[in-house]
């Protein structure tokens, strides 16, 4: 296994671990280890999220995607993705369905994609089953907008 493969494998494993740990709920009243939301004072259910902080719900994304420009993994890099044409990340081989979709990654399209990629673009290779929580989708979209 070469160094690039080991690095990619380590990132995938780290993302999977982060996803598994995020299911545990993390510590109450403070940031979790993944840069997740801190709970607001006097509130057990109202997360406070800095606009550029990585939300805990992004953990599953990191298992396949890098946030570094030009660094593709199992999925394409997500750096600078907002506002671009779907299927247009240099150096990544997209499914014909996504290339032909004509989509642009704006807020509305990202919301539908994150809810159910396979429903939005039948034939996509993205096997992620989707995020059913609209608030978590909005956190992910807000974070994606910070990635340049």
How would you portray this structure in words?
The structure is a single chain. By secondary structure, the protein is an all-alpha fold. It has a single domain (about 5-145), classed as Cytochrome c-like domain (Cytochrome Bc1 Complex, Chain D, domain 2). About 35% of the residues lie in helices and about 5% in strands. It has a two-stranded antiparallel sheet.
The CATH architecture assignment turns out to be: Orthogonal Bundle
Kindly estimate the percentage of residues that lie in beta strands according to DSSP: under 5%
Order of helices and strands: HEEHHHHH
CATH superfamily: Cytochrome c-like domain
Q: Give the number of DSSP strands.
A: 2
Q: What's the pLDDT, averaged over the residues?
A: 78
Shape: globular
Rg, Å, rounded: 16 Å
The separation of the N and C termini measures 31 Å
Short description:
With 148 residues, the chain is mainly α. It has helices spanning 3-22, 59-62, 96-99, 107-115, 117-120, 134-146; strands spanning 38-39, 47-48. The two termini are 31 Å apart.
